[in-house]
Amino acid sequence: MIRVALADDHEIVRSGIQTVIESDPEIKVVWRASDGQETLDKLSEDSPDVLVLDIRMPILNGLEVVKAIKSKKLSDVKIIMLSMHSDRQYILNSMEYGSDGYLLKDTSKLELHKAIKTVHSGQKYFSGDISNTIITSLLDQSTDKPSPESGIERDYNLTKRENEILDMIYAGDSNKTIAEKLNKSIRTIETHRFNIMKKMEVGNIAELLKKVEKRRKN
């Protein structure tokens, strides 16, 4: 019997997912949680084989829960992210933090069972659409490497993509406009923007623009 824990902030969703999971006689839900902190608290008392975890939850979100579990080695539990979000940054962050699988909430009953059994056996499981996103990201890395020829990129170790977005920010484009131009989600652009500001050691857009202006005049 595979022991599964389920974390989602909506009661009706938790109940529905539990029903789907337990339609396989080899899998049983041993406990449920409604937020990230409750998940960690219950995990310290009873560590299941697999944790099926939503990303959007109060107090601590799913990604923060994964990061806490893996970085602090709180448990050997295998973790499957089950989310309505197919945004690339969510997927890549979940992988980076140590999740063992990622499924969208419109997945089939059979695929959910397969994912649970796969990660329980020690393997990773990502649905077809998610796998395509991961592959695309790996291919994009070749264009995201820092270029030694650009002053801004060289001084602050920006990737080509970050430098491209920085140019758009400098030109006055909003996150929405940049997302539309690059065919990316607004959340992805916000993540790039945060990384740019962190690398350039500025706390707001005014400081960022001032630093870019000064660098370009030199």
Descriptive labels:
218 residues, alpha/beta, six-stranded parallel beta sheet, 11 helices, 54% helix
Describe this structure in words.
- 54% of the residues lie in helices and 13% in strands.
- Helix 4 (88-97) links the parallel strand 4 and strand 5.
- The chain has a 6-stranded parallel sheet, sandwiched between helices.
- Residues 145-150 have low confidence and may be disordered.
- The protein has helices at 11-21, 36-45, 62-71, 88-97, 109-120, 128-140, 151-156, 160-170, 175-182, 186-199, 205-217, and strands spanning 2-7, 27-33, 50-53, 78-83, 101-104, 125-126.
- The chain is built from 11 helices and 6 strands.
- The chain is elongated.
- It is of the alpha/beta class.
Short characterization:
By secondary structure, this protein is an alpha/beta fold. 54% of the residues lie in helices and 13% in strands.
User: What's the overall geometry?
Assistant: elongated
- Output the strand order for the largest sheet: 2-1-3-4-5-6
Element order: H for helix, E for strand: EHEHEHEHEHEHHHHHH
**Class per helix and strand makeup:** alpha/beta
Q: Gyration radius, to the nearest Å? A: 20 Å
Low-confidence stretches: 145-150
> Strand tally, please?
6
Helix content estimate: 40-55%
Rounded average pLDDT: 83
- Number of alpha- plus pi-helical segments: 11
Distance between the termini: 66 Å
Largest sheet: 6 strands, parallel
Strand portion = 5-15%
SSE topology sketch:
Layout (H helix, E strand, L loop, with lengths): L1 E6 L3 H11 L5 E7 L2 H10 L4 E4 L8 H10 L6 E6 L4 H10 L3 E4 L4 H12 L4 E2 L1 H13 L10 H6 L3 H11 L4 H8 L3 H14 L5 H13 L1
Parallel strand pairs: 1-2, 1-3, 3-4, 4-5, 5-6
Helix pairs in contact: 2-3, 3-4, 8-10, 9-10
